[in-house]
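Teaching soon. Invent one.


***
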Amino acid sequence: MDFTPDLLAFQGVFISTDSVHPFSRLTVKGGNEEKVKYIIEHMYQFLKDRNFMDENKVLSKEHTRLIRKFILYIILNGNFKTLEKLVEKDDIDSVIWTIPTVPHYLMCELIWSFQVEHFVYEIISYAYPPLAVEVTGAFIENTKYYNPLDCSQKLAKISLACYTLICRLNMFQFPEQENNTLLSETLKHFQNCTKNFVEPPNSYKLETLQKDELYIHNGSWLSSALVLLYDCLERYTKIHEKVPPDFDIIYQVTYIAASINKNIQFYNINDCPKNVLETIGNCNTILLDACQKLIMDVNVDIFCAWSEFEENGKTKQQSIGELCHKVYTKLSSIPVLCEHPIVAMLQQISRKPIEAKDVINSTDVCMIIENINKNDDDKESWLHALLYKDDLCAYRELLDVIHPNINKYSPQECLKLYYILKQGIVNKGQTEVLAVKAFHHCDVSDKHKILTEHFVNNCFFDMKENELFTDMSTEFFNKLIATSNADITDVLTLFLQSPKKVFDKIFNLATENSQQGDIMLQVMKLLDNYCNYYYEVDTEPCIFKALQNNLEICIDTEEKENNFIRFISALKNYGILIGSKLLLLTIMPNIHKALLNKNINNINMQIKLLQSAYTIEELLEYRAPMLAMLAQVMDIVRWKIHTFVTSAPTTLQSTIELQTSFMETYGTSIPVKEENWLKSKLKNTHPLNTYYYRKIWNPPGNNFLEIITGTKMRQHSSKDDITTTLIQIICSCTQEEWFTIWDCLANFEAKIVLDAYYEAMSLIARIERDNRTNNTWACILYCYRTLLHCTRYKFFKEPLTNNQILDVINNITRMPILCDGPKEDMEPLLLPLLAYIAERKNDYSIDLSSCDLVKYECLVTIINNIFSKK
């Protein structure tokens, strides 16, 4: 609790008023009234000047927390012994006793003058207990100045705060003697305060009242006591929290850490230690006895007279009778208290409240609205009664009243309201919007029930588009992505209005990043039951329509593609997307379309999706058709130098891996029926792809190279023979196939194979130079990148030797692209291999930085940078 500009200014008011009327002299009321009034007026002026208070001395709600801080500041500068311990606390030492000490009398007058009775309750209930007990004592002492005509609310606040403080002592751990002292002191304060209900302070002032005025006063006094009793009983029966909803963390600055019981977060009163239970029991007895005495003082004349006085549309007799019924019902439910004599007394004067639902249809609509707008205790009963109003949908003004108060209804009431609104035949636009709001507040199980009924025969339809959907959708998905406390079931409300838009949004967000994909997966689990629902105009489930839309529109980067594949695979693995439908409605049609359009990127994505979402075992029933389809993919994807695209090699390799997995499932033989069918479909397979279907065709040749070329490489074949063979195929091969071809030439000396590879590429590069396009250049770079990779992993054998290094450098320096290729392409091409050579420099003795073979400027620069001794 540090000083802020506002708190500094507040401090200044105290210092300036103390200089006029020293606080130390203002310890009692007698003779000091005008001085205290002067101080209060200056406080009022300060609050008004800063817009914390209006002209009617009503504090601004938006500055509630600041006013609470001001009130606590007054307490922390009061005359309390506990502050001597708290002054050593780092978080409040700077504000304790920073103004002249405020005496108890002045403190109470200041705080009551602000009309913030609730802060008095908070300080006593939630501040550090030893301090709270001292503060309570100051307020109890101040009751001797109270006017009996207007102090019942103050007494009730202090009494209830004492009761709450005793209940909350279980949250702290004090030495036994200190704990007992706190209990006994608080009990004494509670007793002294509640005694004032029976023996009002300055009761002589009541003698001036007329008989009717006295009867009204007696009724108000009894009402305050009964409300206090009910509130205490609520605390007696509820579950207590360490941090209740009305708790403000500012009070924690008064806590001494060692006194906090960290093991307790929630508890019932029955869980409290025996001494706390006994003290609470004594409080109950004291309060019940006080209320009993007040009821006994109500004679027939007073009771009958109450029927003549009205307030808030009810007679005094009716109001008190209904309050007695409320307290009687509560007491009757508590076994240890239901035998007290007051229970029978309450029953005698109780009056069961007239339930609004019983008179809702005989009450004028304007009167119903007036009762709801009163914001009194009856407001909610009239709101709930609207559910029993005949032909509710016909009254636009009643529907308008429900709108802002929809959160006052329980989930079951919202369910009832939803069905009422859906059955209405008038004001459809208004009832539909309100029905959505009612649906939003239903239990999740009821929401699913409604959705099943709403979408008859698994058929989706959209509700009329309105701003409510747009606003709710934006708010829900933003909160879902940005925070961890969003209610994921809120998506059902959006789904009720437009399933298509919800599915579209889910797929769209899931493709953005993996974290959003995980969140959207949880949303989809909630919508699992509706993944086979259709729109009437469609021939496929809505979810597949949304999937396809996002596939065509949203996948524009590799990251999004990977996120999309991951998300779809997860949906399939969780059973949200049926595997057979995903295959037949999405993957296969998209591959077919991509084959027709020769869209390699789309083919690549579908193959990756197949590999990610399915195991081979899951696809076995489609084995033959899949093999035929994969053959078409391989034929389309297999490139020539002028048709090369960068995604083709990875697409082809993925397809080969998938095709190989399928072929391996046949074992040693293919069923005759499948073999014949496949032969009929694979007649025109690309020569480079025949190797992968060799089980079907049984072509001549013992290895990959011999099968795809039809040529057997014999021991006496020359380097030129090898080069000629390589020229025909390597431009259209994947990196793995380059490696396989190298292995097929294992009978030849490694240097011969290396030279043949480089010579073949040199011949291809020279031809490409005269016919260059973006595609051909991309293909050349890919081939050289693959060649250098092949050099690294196939030719080099560790430890490296001078001869190996010279053979490689000699071939690299003769690469035609070094003299005519863009320099910005050369460094990333050569760097990986040269970096590896530099890494192994301890294996060989040759100094590449001074090697005569290195002649191209770009190569010299790279080598000098890598092999520099600096």
Q: What stands out?
A: The mean pLDDT is 91. Residues 211-237 form the longest helix (27 residues). The two ends are 58 Å apart (CA to CA). The chain has five domains: 1-115, 129-297, 354-429, 443-577, 704-867.
